[in-house]
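Just wondering, can you check both lines?
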Amino acid sequence: MDTDIFQYFRDDDKNIEEKLVKLIEQYPNWSFDQVLEESQKIFAAIKDHYHKKEPVLIKHLGHIKNLRANLKEFCKQRDAIDNEIENLVMIHVNEPVYKRSLQALLLRTRENRKFCDEVFYPQLREQLSDKQLNYITNQLKSQVLS
């Protein structure tokens, strides 16, 4: 396998987190237009990140009994992240609650990253055969990396 899909996801998570941290740190210094523009880029990156991998994971892992609970937890966390984004979209960037909502989004993404790194990805590596893992990796690569 020339690409470790789990490392790709970790790198993508880290990139999103770094951008969110920068946005939160720069919030008082940037114009509202710049905050809005950066927020929209981050929201799109987050949605793209979660919604590309979820369909492949559900399609190929949903039938494996030992993985269902953690797949369900992954989807639950993804829904919470989506809800944070939807809440942010409804708030004007110049409202004080906007920065707190960005911080809540950062917390949710960090919780998901920790869950994936410590629970979900190790379980996938443990439960799946090399053949299954390679197949799913190839499906994810065609979905995510293309």
